[in-house]
């Protein structure tokens, strides 16, 4: 079995895997789990933390909030040369998402005695994970987006600067104004609800283009510049979060900038990845799906007795969130790897179905 059978569509199969970016992906899926453990409506750590402990968790939140933007930067970095529409990539994401959701729903019914209903069972076939929905669209339209990189570099800079002003800088100013003055000003050019804190396809496309721009134009910054800037911005974000949590919006200018800085730091590590690191990093999409199911958060998390450790004690609160993030993310990664290993032969057969292989359109084909 070829090890590429177990990789995810976030990296060009023909490109050399980079150790730095594989290590970054591991950090990122741990960060995503941490964000959801903190989340008041999911893990709920923010509901229990008090006083200085809450500030400690806000520091962790500010460190980890760059997870999703960095994932999209990585996608743009590796997929910017793609010219073919391939439905098999999107189909793979759907099958993986649906399979894991069904497995977790059944386990939830069997272990935690959740009442089985046909309605809930059918819902597991409907993609409800916002990230996977946006990501699937992004993967599918990437050949169109990649036409952007064929124009002159100076025009790329002009367009990206304009997009950053419209969809990052201006929304940041509006969100800060609203939160600090108790107003509700909405500029509906992104959606009727405003910028939706960056949870939009527009922002995903923008970060994809930035990742591709860094790759195609070989943009480089020194390690001793990028990492200190990331930590400095993290401190600023943490301080501002005491007053307003809109600073954690994905499309906030500080979050966007710190995402780019951390990405460029790991991208500058030129060593080729080894098999162990690449195998773990390839589980990122599986971790995204598995940990967001009710079986993992909040059911399994509730067994850890969070309220006992997350309280007004800063050290125990932060330690609990970090350790539970590591345990959940690495457990999900192991489960994902083993499941994909077991179904790899079936996946190859599905991807070789004729109508799927024929549904490829090459934009660089002169006949199209």
Key traits:
mainly alpha; 1% strand; 368 residues; 17 helices
Architecture overview:
This protein is an all-alpha fold and 368 residues long. The chain is 67% helix and 1% strand. It is built from 17 helices and 2 strands. Helix 7 crosses helix 9. The chain is globular, with a radius of gyration of 21 Å. The protein starts with 18 loop residues before the first helix and ends in a 6-residue tail after the last strand. The relative contact order is 0.19. The N terminus is likely disordered.
What overall geometry do the principal axes of the alpha carbons give?
globular
Over all CA atoms, what is the radius of gyration? Answer: 21 Å
Global mean pLDDT: 85
* Portion in beta strands: under 5%
Largest sheet: 2 strands, antiparallel
Helix count equals 17
Distance between the termini: 35 Å
Oligomer: single chain
Strand pairing plus helix content: what structural class?
mainly alpha
Uncertain residue segments: 1-14
Tell me the series of helices and strands, N- to C-terminal.
HHHHEHHHHHHHHHHHHHE
Helix content: 55-70%
The order of strands across the largest sheet is 1-2
Question: What is the strand tally?
Answer: 2
